[in-house]
Amino acid sequence: MIPSTIYKVTALLCALASLLLVSAPASQADPFSCWLVEEVGSPRTIRQTPVLLIFTDESRVTPEPPVTMEPGTLLFYVSDPSMKLLSPDFSSCEMTFHLPQEVPLNWVNSLTAEKVSPPSLGQTWYSLSVKNDKEEVAVSAVMGPLRAAGDKKDHLAVFLAAYSTSVTVYAQLGKPLSLPCGLWKGPQPRFAVEWRHRSQGDGKVLYAYDGWRDRIEEELTGYTMNFSTLHSKGDASLFLEKVEASHEGTYLCITYLPYLRAQRDIQVVVTAKPQLSLLPSPLFARPGEEMTLTCEISHFHPLEISVDFLLQLPGETSPSLQPGTSLSTHGLNQDGTYSVNAYHRFTAKPAHHGARYSCLVNHASSSKPMSRTQNLQIAGVSGPSIEDGMYLFMVSLLLYGFLSYLHRKVKLFFRSPGQVNDKQKKVN
Ligand SMILES: *[C@@H]1O[C@H](CO)[C@@H](O)[C@H](O)[C@H]1NC(C)=O
Fold first, then answer.
1. What does the pLDDT look like over 386-411, one tens digit per residue?
2. Ligand 1, atom 10, residue with closest C-alpha
3. What are the residues whose beta carbons fall under 8 Å from the beta carbon of 57, sequence distance 6 or more?
4. Which of 3, 144, 306, 307 is surrounded by the fewest CB atoms within 10 Å?
5. 238-240 and 192-199 strand pairing
6. Which CATH class is domain 26-271?
């Protein structure tokens, strides 16, 4: 062999080796703690067993076990081609046993039409559910025996995953809504997607799609799915044309492969921002008069709401919370929103002339508190308040503007006609 060729080959081998060294650690993440949850005994109790998951790829079948492991911990090597479980943010993890089975639903029937189930179905399968702290990402996966590992029971692979980018979705009443759900199914061409809605014990199928036969089997009006993104990217999101109050509840995105299923649930909270008014408006009172302030809060959703009255006396820099707020019983509007009145009683004191009363509302529909304010005017109390001074200033400003405008007009009026004609010519 010519020396130059030897050098080339060695260089190539070195490059390959360094490539392997660099890529190997990336494929192996830190062990991931989980719990295996099962019902045991009679009467039934919940048993939780600590589990350690080590993510590997299929080519590296027997990686090193972690050095520290509590006794009684189960260890699994998981190959995750979906790459959905390899996020460092996941804080809660739960595993349960998964029983592969045929599903007697029209949109799932075709997936198992041959009635020949693979022998691996007889082995142990697991469902895995992970969420991150902020509840932004959640994944449900089905794990089964890794084929390359033969009959090693501690080597698992992800076969199906359903994931979503939100656990709770706040939906504005009257607006369109997209409920996020993704499906990872590997190379398996047979799949189905089903969306269900559950609210107060009631459940119904909103949408069902047989992806293998490319057929919509169930479809309620107002709901759609995008099949091109479903087939190309696994995006199984459900679109709602217009959010109504009755759309609140739990949505289940259920994904099927032959004999397997994974589901994600999403909570939908329908929000509508309240309309506020603080009465009486304007707020006039005689000295010593018993007054009732009414804060009308209407057309909001959901029902939970907090209302406070604040008072800022003249000369004070910040308002203070007033005790003694009462609430009316709530009314239900035709569109499913609520209305309620809040009351605050007080005795008008002359010293409170110019005080600012506010009604402050906190509600899920708005990240900031909402408020309405009225200035208390006590009859017979003289002396301009700050507001009066501001009004005077604004009036004089307007008057000045008006007068200078008039002044210019009058000057124009008294100009010679020749000057005016010159101007018009220029314009033309
Ligand atoms: C589906 O999604 C694709 C890509 O986002 C978009 O171009 C297409 O218009 C969508 N189809 C429907 C029917 O909304």
1. 555 566 667 777 777 777 877 777 67
2. 226
3. 27, 79
4. 3
5. unpaired
6. mainly beta
